[in-house]
C-alpha cells in the first residue's frame, strides 16, 4: 500500500493539530509532509502519511471520525500511490518567490497563475490576503514557484511586467538561494 492523504477543514480552535496527530500516533502512522493554515477563522490541513501496520484508508477514516466530530472538522482520507508523490522533476528547478501587491480587484490570481501555467512553472505554495485600508483595499499575493532550467526566464519576466501594468500592481520575482523545506 502507498501513502494516505488526509484533508481536514473546520472552524479554527486550539487542539486540532493535537487531536488529529494523536490518532495518527496511536495507529503508528508517520506524518511525512503537511501543510496547515487558517483562512478567516477556517482551519485547513493536508497531511501525507505513511500508514501504520494494518492501517488502511477505511480504518483511518473511521478512527478520525470521532476526533472530527469532537473538533467540528470535516475529515477525508484518500489513497495516493507512491509514484504520484515523486517530485524528482522539480529537483533541478530554481525555487523563487513571486510577490504581487496592488489594489484589490478580480482576476489577479487567475492572470498571474495563467502566466506560470503557460510556461510550465509550478506553484509550490501560495498565500493571498486582502489588507483593509481606509483609502482602499490592498491585495497581497506571495507565491513560491519552481522554474525549470528550460524556461526562458527573460520572456517570463517580460510577461509578468506586461500583466503588472495591465492589473496596475507591483510584481517582483526573487530567487531563493537557501535550502528548501
Secondary structure class reads: alpha+beta
Order of helices and strands: EHEEHEEHEEHE
Name the helicity range.
25-40%
Distance between the termini: 26 Å
Number of helices: 4
DSSP strand tally: 8
How would you describe the shape?
flat
Q: How much β-strand is present in the residues?
A: 35-45%
> Which stretches are poorly predicted, pLDDT < 50 over at least 5 residues?
none
Mean pLDDT rating = 92
Biggest pleated sheet: 4 strands, antiparallel
Strand order of the largest sheet: 2-3-1-4
Please summarize what this structure is.
By secondary structure, the chain is an alpha+beta fold.
Layout of strands and helices, then pairs:
Blueprint: E1 3-11, H1 16-26, E2 30-39, E3 42-50, H2 57-71, E4 73-80, E5 94-103, H3 108-118, E6 122-131, E7 138-147, H4 153-167, E8 169-175
Antiparallel strand pairs: 1-3, 1-4, 2-3, 5-7, 5-8, 6-7
Helix pairs in contact: 1-2, 3-4
